[in-house]
């Protein structure tokens, strides 16, 4: 103990202990704050690419999956369905998809990497409702000469079997096509361009 009655060793010990406890407290307080910057597993999954196995899809069947909070449809088209595509060209607003939101590597008529499989964002380009797939050719309540395609019951927009919009309906453009690629004959990945670019 020094002459003035202060134990300098004890003071140093108390200051060091208090500083260490304060640092630990700051660390505990900072962890939740720093963790809030890291996206949650759910948030990461929402934007992550989605693998889809199409091996069990029959011609005319539509499979719906979620990607980035949107409903994406994978439609397996039959030869007859593909043959209908040129038949409706005069009735379409953008048959060559020049104003469509789709990757550049997509064929303009079939709007697909492989004609048999259409991968399409199912949200109507008018107000975002989900159109129904009505693949049957023949008169419908909304169209006497229906050639098959997608019909939006919300505001009566019509799209062909490639998601191209008809003239004279509220939807301003073709249904969107997300980036996607095939890993093999029966596995496609939505959210990844061919060559692996996201």
Features:
198 residues, alpha+beta, Rieske Iron-sulfur Protein, 2 domains, three-stranded antiparallel sheet, 3 helices, 21% helix
In short:
The protein is an alpha+beta fold. It has 3 helices and 9 strands, in the order H-H-E-E-E-H-E-E-E-E-E-E. Strands 1-9-8 form a 3-stranded antiparallel sheet, with no helix packed on it. A 3-stranded antiparallel sheet has the order 2-3-4, with no helix packed on it. Strands 5-6-7 form a 3-stranded antiparallel sheet, with no helix packed on it.
> What number of structural domains do the residues give?
2
CATH fold-level assignment of the largest domain = Rieske Iron-sulfur Protein
Task: Write the H/E string, N to C.
Answer: HHEEEHEEEEEE
Beta-strand content bin: 15-25%
Describe the structure.
The protein is α+β, with helices and mostly antiparallel strands and 198 residues long. The chain folds into two domains: 1-38; 44-190, Rieske [2Fe-2S] iron-sulphur domain (Rieske Iron-sulfur Protein, 3-layer Sandwich). It is 21% helix and 20% strand. The strands form three sheets. The chain has a three-stranded antiparallel sheet, with no helix packed on it. A hairpin with a 2-residue loop joins strand 2 and strand 3 (70-76). The longest helix is centred in the first third of the chain and has 28 residues, at 8-35.
């Amino acid at each position: 103990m020094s002459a003035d009655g202060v134990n300098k060793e004890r003071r140093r010990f108390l200051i060091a202990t208090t500083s260490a406890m304060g640092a630990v407290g700051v660390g505990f307080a900072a962890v939740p704050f720093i963790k809030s910057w890291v996206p949650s597993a759910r948030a990461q999954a929402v934007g992550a690419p989605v693998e889809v196995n199409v091996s069990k899809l029959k011609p005319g069947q539509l499979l719906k999956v979620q990607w980035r909070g949107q409903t994406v449809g994978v439609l397996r088209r039959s030869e007859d369905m593909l043959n209908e595509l040129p038949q409706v060209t005069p009735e379409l607003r953008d048959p060559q998809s020049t104003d469509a939101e789709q990757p550049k590597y997509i064929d303009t008529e079939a709007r697909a990497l492989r004609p048999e499989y259409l991968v399409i964002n199912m949200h109507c380009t008018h107000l975002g409702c989900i159109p129904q797939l009505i693949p049957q050719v023949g008169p419908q309540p909304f169209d006497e000469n229906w050639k098959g395609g997608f019909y939006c019951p919300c505001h009566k927009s019509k799209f062909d079997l490639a998601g191209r919009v008809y003239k004279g309906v509220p939807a301003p453009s073709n249904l969107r096509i997300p980036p996607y690629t095939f890993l093999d004959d029966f596995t496609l990945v939505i959210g990844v361009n061919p060559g692996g670019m996201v």
